[in-house]
Amino acid sequence: MTRTIRLYDPTGVALPAAAGIQRTFTALAGKVVGFIDNSKPNFNFLVEDLAALLQRDFGVAEIVRHAKRAASVPAAPAVLDDMARRCDLVIAGSGD
Description:
The structure is a single chain. The protein is extended. The mean pLDDT is 82. It has 96 residues and is of the alpha/beta class. The chain has helices spanning 20-26, 43-58, 77-86, and strands spanning 32-37, 62-67, 89-92. Helix 2 (43-58) links the parallel strand 1 (32-37) and strand 2 (62-67). A three-stranded parallel sheet has the order 2-1-3, with helices on both faces.
């Protein structure tokens, strides 16, 4: 018996280096970026490094951090309200 297995390549087409990419990220200058830590291992290390890079290289004014009590539960309404009120951009993360 013969079976067909389809494999899909998840890699996207590489975009040419664009001068506009830097211009896009400079829009972060003076902004507030929030992180919601989903409590998975190692996300805190990613946040520390990314926050430092965003502030150092892109002029982000402030970093706001919140943590969920577990990856399987949604963020508390108070957390979402605080992030919506204070942040220009929020990154919800995963670790491992």
